[in-house]
C-alpha cells in the first residue's frame, strides 16, 4: 500500500510518465490503476477528481495523486444484474460484496462503475440509494446528475416504499414493531414473518423501514433477539450458519418524477434468501 503526491512541473509529460518516474511501477500497472480509479488529479480551482485517461494533458500547478494497493486493485466484483432500464435511470440487483461507494484506492468494485462499463448503450451512472457491502438487492442508478437529484429527493422525502427480505435465527412472531434509537436518532422498522422452518430454526421475514439509519435492520433484528443469518457484525457468535448476510432489498415503489407514473420493482424468488 503506497501513496504518491506529485506537483506537475512539466506539462509535456503525461500522467503515466510522471507517475512511472516517481513510483517505479510499469506503465501497464499505472494504466490499470487509472482505469480502476486509484489515480487522482487536483488543482486549487478544480477540486479533486479521478484521472482515468493515460494521455490526459496536465497543467503546471496541478497535483497528481496515486493510491496503490495491490490487494484492492486485484479484487473482482460479481456481476450486477439489470432488472429494468427506464432510460433516465435503471434498476439493478447488487450482489453480495459489490460496493455502493468507492474510496481513494479505487472504485472498480462499485455498482455505478460496473454499470458505466457494462451497460449498453454506455451512459454515466450515479448512485441514488445505497446498500451495505454485505447486503444484496435493488438499487437505482441514475444516468444524469439531474435524474439523480430528482430520485434522491424522493428518498429524502420518504416518498419511496422500500421492503427488505431477511432470514433470521429463531421463531419470529407474526409481526414486530422495532423502534430502538440508532446513534441517538429515532429509527422505526416494521417486521412481519413470512415463513418458519422448524428443522433449521430460522424464519423468513419482511421488513419495511420508516427511517434509514446505518445498519438499521441488522441492529433492530439483532436487538430483538432475531439476528440475521450470516451477520458477522451483529449476529450470534459461533453460529452454525457460515453463509453471507441474508438481507435483501427486495421491493421498491414510487411515483416517477419524470412521467408521474407509479413504478414498482420486485425481485424474483431466485434472488431471495432460502429458508430450506
SSE map:
Elements: E1 2-7, H1 15-23, H2 27-35, E2 39-43, E3 47-50, E4 63-68, H3 70-73, E5 81-85, E6 89-94, H4 111-118, E7 126-127, E8 136-142, H5 145-156, E9 161-169, E10 175-178, E11 189-197, E12 202-209, H6 216-223, E13 247-255, E14 262-266
Parallel strand pairs: 8-13
Antiparallel strand pairs: 1-4, 2-3, 2-4, 5-6, 6-8, 7-8, 9-12, 9-13, 10-11, 11-12, 13-14
Series of H and E elements = EHHEEEHEEHEEHEEEEHEE
Q: Give the beta-strand count.
A: 14
Helical percent range?
10-25%
Low-confidence segments: none
Cα distance spanning the termini: 43 Å
For the sheet with most strands, the description reads:
10 strands, mixed
CATH superfamily caption of the largest domain? Pseudouridine synthase
CATH class term of the largest domain: Alpha Beta
Compute the CA-based radius of gyration. 22 Å
Protein model, in words:
The protein has 276 residues and is α+β, with helices and mostly antiparallel strands. The protein contains 6 helices and 14 strands. The protein folds into 3 domains: 2-73, Structural Genomics Hypothetical 15.5 Kd Protein In mrcA-pckA Intergenic Region, Chain A (Roll); 81-157, Alpha-Beta Plaits; 161-249, 2-Layer Sandwich (Pseudouridine synthase), CATH 3.30.2350.10. The protein has helices at 15-23, 27-35, 70-73, 111-118, 145-156, 216-223; strands spanning 2-7, 39-43, 47-50, 63-68, 81-85, 89-94, 126-127, 136-142, 161-169, 175-178, 189-197, 202-209, 247-255, 262-266. A hairpin with a 6-residue loop joins strand 13 and strand 14.
Amino acid at each position: 500500500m503506497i501513496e504518491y503526491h506529485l506537483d506537475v512541473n512539466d506539462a509535456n509529460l503525461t500522467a503515466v510518465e510522471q507517475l512511472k518516474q516517481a513510483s517505479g511501477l510499469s506503465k501497464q500497472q499505472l494504466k490499470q490503476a487509472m482505469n480502476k480509479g486509484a489515480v487522482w488529479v487536483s488543482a486549487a480551482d478544480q477540486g479533486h477528481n479521478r484521472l482515468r485517461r493515460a494521455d490526459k494533458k496536465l497543467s503546471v500547478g496541478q497535483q497528481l495523486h496515486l493510491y496503490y494497493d495491490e490487494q484492492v486493485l486485484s479484487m473482482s466484483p460479481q456481476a450486477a444484474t439489470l432488472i429494468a432500464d427506464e432510460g433516465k435511470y435503471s434498476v439493478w440487483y447488487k450482489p453480495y460484496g459489490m460496493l455502493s461507494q468507492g474510496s481513494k484506492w479505487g472504485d472498480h468494485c462499485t455498482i455505478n462503475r460496473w454499470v458505466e462499463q457494462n451497460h449498453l448503450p454506455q451512459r454515466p451512472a450515479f448512485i441514488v440509494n445505497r446498500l451495505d457491502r454485505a447486503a444484496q438487492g435493488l438499487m437505482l442508478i441514475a444516468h444524469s446528475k439531474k435524474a439523480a437529484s430528482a430520485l434522491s429527493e424522493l428518498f429524502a422525502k420518504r416518498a419511496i416504499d422500500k421492503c427488505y427480505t431477511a432470514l433470521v435465527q429463531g421463531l419470529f412472531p407474526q409481526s414486530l414493531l422495532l423502534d430502538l434509537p440508532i446513534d441517538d436518532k429515532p429509527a422505526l422498522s416494521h417486521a412481519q414473518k413470512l415463513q418458519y422452518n422448524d428443522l433449521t430454526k430460522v424464519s423468513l421475514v419482511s421488513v419495511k423501514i420508516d427511517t434509514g439509519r446505518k445498519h438499521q435492520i441488522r441492529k433492530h433484528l439483532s436487538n430483538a433477539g432475531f439476528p440475521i443469518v450470516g451477520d458477522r457484525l451483529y449476529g450470534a457468535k459461533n453460529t452454525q450458519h457460515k453463509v453471507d448476510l441474508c438481507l435483501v432489498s427486495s421491493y421498491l415503489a414510487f411515483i416517477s418524477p419524470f412521467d408521474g407514473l407509479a413504478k414498482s420493482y420486485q425481485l424474483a424468488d431466485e434472488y431471495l434468501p432460502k429458508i430450506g
